[in-house]
Amino acid sequence: ELIAGTDREITLNVADGLGYRLANFNTGLIIDYTKPVKPVITFLDGQSVSIESNSTGVTNYYVYQDSIPAENTALNAKFTIPAADAASYNLCSQLAPLAIADPAYVLKIFATDGATLGKSNASDVETISYVPMLKNSVLLTNTNSGAAISTVLGGQYDATCTFTSDQNVSNGVTLTAQLDLATVKMAYEVQSSSNPFAVPVTVFVNDATQDVANIAKITYPADYIAQRVYIKLGSKVYRYTLPATGNSSSAPADISGGVLVNQTL
After folding, report:
1. How far is CA 119 from the centre of its chain?
2. Cβ partners under 8 Å of residue 56, min gap 6
3. Rounded Cα–Cα distance for residues 223 and 200 (Å)
4. Widest CA span in the chain
5. Is 70 left (phi over 0), alpha (psi -120 to 50) or beta?
6. CB burial readout 164-197, b (16+ within 10 A) else e
7. Are 182 and 214 in contact (CB under 8 A)?
């Protein structure tokens, strides 16, 4: 009997035609029936994740998008992560920017203990939602140190989600924390047609489920209307689509429904 989580030696019994056993010996072969532990994924920052299986002998992690097909081969995988690279892996760089209609990637990840998929033991599957927020984006950070002073320039990130330089030209997008000592962040993708002199729109946002409303003010040119941004208020990151009409600090937009589970900026 093969039992999950155990290895079994293969022994050979030799018998005659009457069923009398003539010999019994160990072949020296072992069936490896121990599958790796399901991987644990930790979001490190807006770029990288840590993938870990609490098992020895893990060689690779296979990543699939949406589902794992029945004809499960490495060619079907979106990409493969060697175990040696999994402690801090730039997941953001492997994924294209999402279309406005797509909320997040659904990734299914499992570990294997051999070099060849199909000839290795595979772990159970871990499923995560993921958004490559820093892909070709600008990250604004603003801290209210007793006065609401807007952040206009931020850090620029390339197609690998890697910081390249400080922004030196305004795109007309600004971010302001409204509460004393509060810090907010926002990642947005620069629009090629952006005109910083266009009539701006100003919106205030908060999470209405928080005990203390951590309000941020965003101002942007009209050509950013309907564009998606990612905002960090407190310890949470939110997905938000910029509206055509502004509002006021007394009636901020509630973005609590756009929380990105486990992700950070």
Report:
1. 29
2. none
3. 9
4. 97
5. alpha
6. eeebeeebbbbbbbbbeebbbbbbbbbbeebeee
7. yes
- Write out the two tokens for 15: 């018998």
Amino acid at 55: S
In the block, tokens 């971010």 appear at 175
> In this structure, which amino acid lies at residue 52?
E
What per-residue confidence (pLDDT) applies to 158? 96
For β-strands 216-221 and 200-206, DSSP reports them as antiparallel
60-98: pLDDT as tens digits: 999 999 998 877 667 788 999 999 999 999 999 999 998
pLDDT of residue 4: 46
Residue 108: how many CB atoms within 10 A of its CB? 17
Q: What is the pLDDT of residues 198-234, one digit of tens each?
A: 679 999 999 998 866 778 999 999 889 999 999 998 8
User: Hey, CA dihedral for 38, 43, 49, 55, is it positive or negative?
Assistant: negative
Helix (DSSP H) and strand (DSSP E) numbers for the chain: 0, 18
| The two three-digit tokens of residue 190, written as one number | 């620069």
